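Long-time lurker, first post.

We've been arguing in lab meeting about whether S-adenosylmethionine would sit comfortably in this protein at all. Half the group thinks yes, half thinks no, and nobody has a model to point at. So I'm putting the question to the forum: if I give you the sequence and the SMILES, can you give me back a predicted structure of the complex? Inputs are below. Any interpretation is welcome too.
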Amino acid sequence: MDIQSLEDIEVKLLLEAVSLRYGYDFREYTAAPLRRSILTGMAGEGVSTISAYQDRLLHDTSCLQRFLSTVGVSVSSMFREPDTWRCLRDDVVPHLRTYPSIRVWSVGCATGEEVYSLAIALQEEGLLHKTSIYATDMNEDALAVAKAGSCSVERLRSYESDYLRSGGHSSLSTFFTSSGRVARLKRDLLHNVTFAQHNLVTDTSFNDFHLIICTNVLIYFRPTLQQRAHRLFYDSIIRSGFLALGQRESLVFAPESSRYHQVSDGVSVFRKVR
Ligand SMILES: C[S@@+](CC[C@H](N)C(=O)[O-])C[C@H]1O[C@@H](n2cnc3c(N)ncnc32)[C@H](O)[C@@H]1O
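Top reply:
Settle the argument with this. Predicted structure of the protein with S-adenosylmethionine, as tokens:
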């Protein structure tokens, strides 16, 4: 029998406790980032052992939201990985244009920067008015931030170069109104966006999407969980629809990998071919 380290045992027990108490199941997440996040969470809570962290999580329900944001890594930025956005504009938009209406699912949208990027790119390409965007994440606090549609003026400035590299037509400030140090996304850009909680570990598929974008989420999943997510994506995309992943993500663990082809070299954007 394998004797496990004390830390491994404590991590397992903590994940089991969170799953039993709250129904969030992180047991199939990749070990190294999970461990780092747990250590970060412990520092934030001011506890010195994983067992003490488990105790806090079990008895203080407010600790769960902080845990979800730390372990789920709810960090994002606009037009992150601009080559992917460039590919979406150059190689995917021309196909989307041919449909009378378009459905897009942004999976693991975190605090909304990906959704704002989508809305802006689709607006610039003249497609936003006929597009419905479903933006989901397992973390309700992140979704609440996403719905608010605002960010600091400094952060907005820091996104400008990626926006331009992604093929942006003007300046990001065109799409925001600023008051003091806060920039607010113009409300009409979020008219066709529905924000909802959805967990890739436990929930089922939505249907008939022309494009699913799920970036920097699967990297945190072990192969079995990636397989589950891929099955869900495959079932949710229409034939000839598109799947955009992060640059460090791929179809390696997708049972349906032979049913997609890569849209462009060097970016993880795929078209479902059968
Ligand atoms: C690193 S962020 C990525 C945000 C954005 N997609 C991007 O690339 O900037 C990962 C997001 O995935 C979400 N997430 C993690 N596990 C999830 C799950 N099982 N189901 C749904 N969302 C999940 C987290 O809450 C977090 O907001």
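For your lab meeting: Residues 6-22 form the longest helix (17 residues). The chain has nine helices and ten strands. Whichever side wins, do check it experimentally.
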